[in-house]
Design brief:
CATH superfamily: 7,8-Dihydro-6-hydroxymethylpterin-pyrophosphokinase HPPK
Radius of gyration: 15 Å
Distance between the termini: 32 Å
Shape: globular
Number of strands: 8
Order of helices and strands: EHEEEHEEEHHE
Number of helices: 4
């Protein structure tokens, strides 16, 4: 049996009731086989980055899993589909977006998956909630680089 690995997942949505979508996704993640939800950040609001549409609601959850990173990604993509996720064009507004940010200390670079997430260090809406859960994984320098991006806390997830 595989050892448990700590993984961090970014959640975001900007269509429909985005806060409810993130709460439902958190529940769905927690019910996956071989996955245990261990921590959740607050909800954060942010303006779209490289996108359009309404403001986003974002969060990060931390899990323990025995799944491989590709298996976890596939499970997250199934949750997105169940939430009505469509991909009509790059960075389209979405009902739910789940990104595998970190998978232990693994560095993965495949056509289907890159971990750590390649753009997380550029996005305050990822770094702020990630720093809330795992301050050792986000440096002050990283936070200072995104300090000009507007992100606001909305309360508990």
């Amino acid at each position: 049996m595989r050892d448990w690995v700590t993984a961090c997942i970014g959640l975001g949505a900007n269509l429909g009731d985005a806060s409810a979508a993130l709460r439902a996704a958190t529940h769905s993640i927690d019910t996956l086989n071989e996955v245990r939800l261990t921590r959740r950040s607050s909800l954060y609001g942010s303006s779209p980055v490289d996108s359009s549409g309404p403001d986003y609601v974002n969060a990060v959850v931390q899990v323990q899993t025995r799944l491989t990173a590709p298996q976890l990604l596939a499970a997250l993509q199934r949750i997105e589909l169940q939430a009505g996720r469509e991909r009509p064009f790059l960075n389209a507004p979405r009902t739910l977006d789940l990104d595998l940010l970190l998978f232990g200390d693994a560095r993965i670079c495949s056509p289907a998956l890159v971990v750590p997430h390649p753009r997380m260090a550029e996005r305050a809406f990822v770094l702020r909630p990630l720093a809330e859960l795992a301050p050792d994984r986000v440096s002050a320098e990283q936070l200072s680089r995104v300090a000009g991006q507007s992100v606001w806390c909305l309360g508990p997830l």
